[in-house]
Amino acid sequence: MDYQPRPADVEFVLNAVLGATPRLSALAPFADFDTALQAQVLEGAARFVGEVIAPLNRSGDEIGCRFEAGEVHTPPGFRAAYQAFVEGGWPALAASPADGGQGLPAVLEAVLYEWMSGANHGLTMAPGLLHGAYECLRHHGSDALQQRYLSKIATGEWLATMCLTEAHAGSDLGQVRTRAVPQADGSHRVSGSKIFISGGEHDLTANIVHLVLCRMPDAPPGPKGLSLVLVPKMLDDDTRNGVHCERIEEKMGLHGSSTCVMRFDEATGWLVGEPHRGLAAMFVMMNSARLHVALQGIGLLDAAWQKADAYARERRQMRAPGPVPASRGTEAADLIAEHPAVRRILDTQRAWIDGARVLGYRTALMLDVAQHGDDAKARERAQRWCAIVTPVLKAACTQQGFLGASECLQVFGGHGYVREWGIEQVVRDARVSMIYEGTNEIQAIDLLVRKVLPDGGSAMSGVLIELRDELDASRDADADVQRRLAQLRYLTTSVAMAAHAAPTLPYEVADDYLRVVMLAMMAWAWARIDMAADGDARWSAPCAAFRRHALPEFDMRLGMVKRACEAVTAAPAATA
Amino acid sequence: MDYQPRPADVEFVLNAVLGATPRLSALAPFADFDTALQAQVLEGAARFVGEVIAPLNRSGDEIGCRFEAGEVHTPPGFRAAYQAFVEGGWPALAASPADGGQGLPAVLEAVLYEWMSGANHGLTMAPGLLHGAYECLRHHGSDALQQRYLSKIATGEWLATMCLTEAHAGSDLGQVRTRAVPQADGSHRVSGSKIFISGGEHDLTANIVHLVLCRMPDAPPGPKGLSLVLVPKMLDDDTRNGVHCERIEEKMGLHGSSTCVMRFDEATGWLVGEPHRGLAAMFVMMNSARLHVALQGIGLLDAAWQKADAYARERRQMRAPGPVPASRGTEAADLIAEHPAVRRILDTQRAWIDGARVLGYRTALMLDVAQHGDDAKARERAQRWCAIVTPVLKAACTQQGFLGASECLQVFGGHGYVREWGIEQVVRDARVSMIYEGTNEIQAIDLLVRKVLPDGGSAMSGVLIELRDELDASRDADADVQRRLAQLRYLTTSVAMAAHAAPTLPYEVADDYLRVVMLAMMAWAWARIDMAADGDARWSAPCAAFRRHALPEFDMRLGMVKRACEAVTAAPAATA
């Protein structure tokens, strides 16, 4: 069973829960955007993803990318599917019309990538980095570079990579050693080795544009001495640049995507942005890239859920306890969907998917507002939302993508562990997103140490007030969420105070703190869904499952962080 | 880096924490057993596992078992390693000397299998089913069958399988259709198809003895009509029996073990035990088989931990927060082992391994007592312990084996996702143990619905009192554990009462209830370790990590079960 996007679910979240269309049409570039256009784009995307992308998932995993004499061959069908993707205009969905794009809202692109990841994570890796490269070049590229590369990248005619990691420099980019030596003609000669380069080499496009983090000869040490250099595989005269794929990694999953070791050998490149300001140029795309990774988690979890749900509605084993289910008929055994242990898995994972969608799509909307809002205050608020919420979603959604897919595998019993049903592939594929684009531990530190604490928790407070203001305190469920948001606010203050006494404390509680934030936001999301759904059974079972099985973790994590703070304040001199 | 058993850690648990030797030497067959013999056996086992079994793990995964024209070829080296295993007398470690065994305690066999699973899960599957088959045959086989098969199986000269599952009958064995037709000579003709048969076919031994669950023509429907029939691959006259391997499964992991689809085609077999009493014959080996699966979880987690620990002591990334660690020296970046997020993973997983060992080895000791105790009361108490604790350990240790291995993978960052470091194999291999030998959801139901509730919680109370009596309430930590044990006792009563009003409730809370039991027992285990360790730093970091990061789940799950009970008692007629 291949993954099949379900636009109605997504439209409910966008329209009934988030009121996306009026928010979007208030922005100048989307003045004509309406739910009819939205529905049309989503229907088209669902059809394309379901018919073209999804059927290649299994063979993409089993055959995988092959490496031969410096070339990478993508799995059968990938090339044609990618061609169709480009011809359909999908890569350029949210790109500016000036660059050959369709100028649609980022939130539709977010939905498209969520679905594509659910359908075929490996193939989706290829265009996954286009958007970051596009934004990076658009904001920091010289006119000459933009002229040569921007529309090729916007339209997906050429694919792009981000070359950051080196063997000794993973999370610690300050250790990057690849060198860029300025030449008389304004170009740079780039030499060095990069690892874990997704799509570093492949046969999908005629050219590949690498954005390479490197160090110029006069650079200060550490992260403030890094520059970003654009290095194409093919030069303008159609000769091959000094860019070589040395090998591709054998991985746990994601076999449809080549993970390359790249060697740059006196390759010609051009600086993007200021010298030594490479990280700043890169960070432009950080929020949208991280949000896309969060959406991968949601997409993969939805793929796992669809498989488990379908299996549970077909497979019969033993009598379910309790009243006779309507589905029993004359059968001796009941559908496993009727067994409480299976029901719990399905409803709880459905709750994670739906709630995370509310948060993910809202964040994508905020990317649109941050870029196109005509009110500086609104842009700033949107920016703040993205800065705080993005690392939370990246960590929490990718973790759930993996753990939830593993739960869904459990629904299959022994059949889940064999290839046949495709569910084990989802688990293997999903694991990587907890690592790349900043490990989940680094997301937690980014949230607490870099985003929340430096301003004493005021940006976080701002986000919590926004959430509170959208609740209806006369509803019980909403009042419960308000209480949690207030608890989180107090907790933030406690951590900020304890951090003075014990500077390592934030690092010790960062993961728990992130979970508290995610669960508070999920509670908010489900309060909003619950109100919009108005008793519709499609949403009430996952809503109940969320409150019963997922939400209790909120109090647990809150208590863990609290106790850690109290321990420090009780013995203030101990770790200071 | 291959897995390497560390006997000192295990001996500390056996001697200092559990006082195993005096308990064992009080049993007649082990009167001469002492710590010196124990140390000798463990040293020998550690050497054998480290030198012979562990080095084949990687190639066992990558090459895997191959299926060709009905034959299964195990990976290179497996045959020789298995031969060495047999020649070393390891399969017969705990078998009776009368059957060619060494008559050592089950607890040593438990340690051996934990280590072997950590070293090479795939290869360990082969002899993993021997012990169950041995016990089954010893208790239920006719004299003639015992004569022909018992010592061959005890010594591992022939391997054995359990043929239970059919395509439509997984957790629901009542649906088994394989037929056994009695013949005039007392034999049976067996026909039918079985799936998921571990080691159903291979090249390790000259014969393979299948214990097949089937249905005789006059059998009542459902699980009470199942009979157990022994069907050898080779008959006494050295002709091939009608037993065929149709294919082997492609799996997520465990590639070193063949998972076979077996067809029995008028195969000759002999009844084991009474007609229609096949399940009873099989249940003889259930506790020890489930305990071995729990130990697989511990072994695999230890393997993952060893890899992550070694990597974290070598890899340097960024400065750790807080005081300068001694390991910094003149380096710019610190060992990742110094970073709180990594430290937390390593210490918490270590805590699961050490605590679970205390519980696992104690349960193995109870298997020895249940079998050899000369006091009927003591035997009964030991039996009760095994009945209650085994499903808890099977579910909790295999879950931690998978989730904890995935945490350890995270320590490697991107390097964890590629094959090279071997950690992703551990995650893939570990996943299966949450499914087989009864899924973890079925363990939870077994615990609560079949073991705890039928006697109104009295057996569970008995176990809790045993635990309490071994605590020292004058110690703070022990008093905290006492409080938790009492909470669990009250909880059990609440569930029993609520179950009257709502018969489906136990099925809904079974997973949470099992977690409460596991965490209470883990708290007990760590109180015991803490007392025995007397401040030794080897044990104090995981002890602190357990209390800080793992134990808070106790209150969370307790609350979840409590609220579910309260909801039912508040509306007694709703689901009754």
CATH superfamily of the largest domain in chain A: Butyryl-CoA Dehydrogenase, subunit A, domain 3
Question: What sort of overall outline of chain A do the alpha carbons produce when their principal axes are compared?
Answer: globular
CATH architecture of the largest domain in chain A: Up-down Bundle
Total helical elements of chain A: 21
Record field, number of beta strands of chain A: 9
Quaternary state of this entry equals homodimer
Rg of chain A over CA atoms, rounded to whole Å, is: 24 Å
Would you state the CATH class of the largest domain in chain A? Mainly Alpha
Query: First CA to last CA of chain A: what distance?
Result: 56 Å
Number of domains of chain A: 3
Mean pLDDT over the full residue set of chain A: 96
Order of helices and strands of chain A: HHHHEEHHHHHEEEEEEEHHHHHHHHHHHH
Q: Determine the most extensive contact between two protein chains.
A: A-B, 72 and 70 residues
Largest sheet of chain A, in brief, is: 7 strands, mixed
User: What fraction of the residues of chain A are assigned to beta strands by DSSP?
Assistant: 5-15%
Question: Would you give the CATH topology of the largest domain in chain A?
Answer: Butyryl-CoA Dehydrogenase, subunit A, domain 3
Helix content of chain A: 55-70%
Low-pLDDT parts of chain A are none
| Helix/strand structural class of chain A | alpha+beta
